[in-house]
């Protein structure tokens, strides 16, 4: 099971570190391992939806000021 963060002082590993501090030793020297399983990859559908919503917003703002 991949873990997301690791303390650089005591080597504790976990998914979340509350307030950015290691729960084992209290150190703030925490590194992101970059392989957290709770992170979701965004596909091209998210980008298309985002662009469509921005275009819709721009059109609606333009209609309000033109009319």
Q: Layout of helices and strands, plus pairs?
A:
Elements: E1 5-7, E2 13-14, E3 30-32, H1 44-66
Antiparallel strand pairs: 1-2, 1-3
Short description:
The protein is of the alpha+beta class and 67 residues long. The protein contains 1 helix and 3 strands, in the order E-E-E-H.
Notes on the structure:
There is one protein chain. The chain has one domain. It has one helix and three strands. The chain has one helix at 44-66; strands at residues 5-7, 13-14, 30-32. Strands 2-1-3 form a three-stranded antiparallel beta sheet, with no helix packed on it.
Major β-sheet strand ordering: 2-1-3
H/I helix tally: 1
User: Into which percentage range does the β-strand content fall?
Assistant: 5-15%
The major sheet is characterized as: 3 strands, antiparallel
Choose one word for the global shape.
Answer: elongated
The counted number of beta strands is 3
Low-confidence stretches: none
Arithmetic mean pLDDT: 82
Order of helices and strands: EEEH
Q: How many angstroms separate the termini?
A: 57 Å
User: Which class best fits the helix and strand makeup?
Assistant: alpha+beta
The value of Rg in angstroms is: 21 Å
Fraction of helical residues: 25-40%
What is the domain total for the residues? Answer: 1
Transmembrane segments: 43-59
Keywords: Membrane, Transmembrane, Transmembrane helix
